[in-house]
From TrEMBL:
Biological source species: Apiospora saccharicola
Record's protein name: Coenzyme Q-binding protein COQ10 START domain-containing protein
Higher taxonomy: Eukaryota, Fungi, Dikarya, Ascomycota, Pezizomycotina
Signal peptide extent: 1-22
InterPro entries listed in its UniProt record: START-like_dom_sf
Entry keyword set: Signal
Cross-referenced SUPFAM superfamilies: Bet v1-like
Length: 229
């Protein structure tokens, strides 16, 4: 409990300053030809694979490890896409992310969400009996539907972790991809690639726990969107 309080206190102290910085700082550009990646074709690697997946901010840079889940939603890509950006509703359905703190100008979600938005996630289940917090910055809100892409049309929702140390301790990014299957259902691929750093080394023993939480979060999303459409 004390560790959780200390983590929350430090996060709260830097929150206002960080939000101000995020408003005036553009998200880093993708590397290594990221713009040519067919996001609609990405799938989770085989179980136990050491492969990692590209992310919009860090391109095809090799990660340290990956957690990934995919499943079919009986909902449209747009309904699911709006649900993951509806941060104020997370406490109603998400058993992993308990709360998302937002700056004052974000009165409604997903309508007021924008690229560069700094959020503070409160998560549970990573460390027993403790909640953890992290600052996550929205990096991508886009899709292929308006680009005339008829192959694997998708919507992409992404945010990256900010360690407050310019990425010297830990870097990660979490894309959620919603691929239209053409029959009223959606293939949902949700993953996070964790990149090399001393902070990431501390997370490596928690990989299986993170994978379990990601899998459950996807199941929570499925139950939520199929119930609300």
């Amino acid at each position: 409990m004390l560790l959780s309080v200390l983590i929350w206190a430090v996060s709260a102290l830097i929150w206002d300053e960080h939000v101000a910085q995020a408003r005036s700082t553009a998200a880093p550009a993708g590397r290594d030809g990221t713009t040519t990646i067919n996001w609609g074709s990405i799938r989770c690697p085989a179980a136990k694979s050491l492969e990692t997946l590209p992310t919009p901010t860090y391109g095809t840079e090799k990660g340290m490890f990956l957690v990934c889940t995919e499943l079919v939603l009986n909902a449209s890509p747009r309904d699911a896409y709006r649900a993951v950006f509806d941060f104020r509703a997370y406490s109603r359905w998400n058993s992993f992310v308990q709360d998302v703190a937002l700056p004052p100008e974000v009165a409604r979600t997903p309508d007021d969400v924008y690229v560069g938005l700094a959020t503070r996630f409160t998560t549970t289940g990573i460390i027993p009996l403790l909640n953890t917090t992290s600052i996550e910055i929205v990096t991508v809100m886009k899709g292929s539907f308006d680009e005339g892409n008829s192959e694997n049309p998708y919507l992409l929702a992404t945010w990256r972790y900010d360690d407050e140390l310019h990425g010297t301790s830990s870097r990660s990014e979490h894309p959620s991809i919603f691929v239209d299957r053409g029959d009223g259902t959606t293939l949902h691929i949700s993953y996070e690639t964790y990149f090399t750093g001393p902070g990431t080394l501390l997370l490596l023993p928690l990989k299986e726990t993170l994978q379990k939480q990601f899998t459950q979060q996807a199941l929570d999303l499925k139950a939520y969107v199929e119930r609300t459409i």
